[in-house]
């Protein structure tokens, strides 16, 4: 279980006032493929390029759930 990591993220994002730290991106991973996520600061989402999913934030906490994620259009090539 990733409970320890999640509470750490919660603390970190609160501490940073919702600002995503790049160090945070190194400890969190996609719940599907366990790949690295990238932060989209324009949409305030965490992006998995492999699954083409965008995970939202809720109260400054990343919601890493497949059913909460937004499917990215395939044309959006980064
Ligand atoms: Zn993924």
TrEMBL record:
It comes from the Bacteria. Gene3D superfamilies: 2.20.25.10. One of its GO terms (cellular component) is cytosol. Pfam families: Trm112p (PF03966). InterPro entries: Trm112-like. HAMAP family: UPF0434. Belongs to the UPF0434 family. This is UPF0434 protein Xedl_00559. It comes from Xenorhabdus eapokensis.
């Amino acid at each position: 279980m990733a409970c320890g990591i999640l509470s750490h993220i919660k603390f970190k994002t609160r501490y940073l006032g919702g600002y995503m730290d790049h160090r945070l991106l190194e400890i969190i991973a996609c719940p599907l493929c366990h790949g690295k996520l990238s932060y989209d600061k324009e949409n305030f989402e965490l992006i998995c390029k492999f699954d083409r999913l965008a995970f939202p934030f809720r109260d400054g906490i990343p919601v890493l759930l497949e059913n909460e994620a937004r499917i990215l259009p395939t044309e959006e090539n980064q």
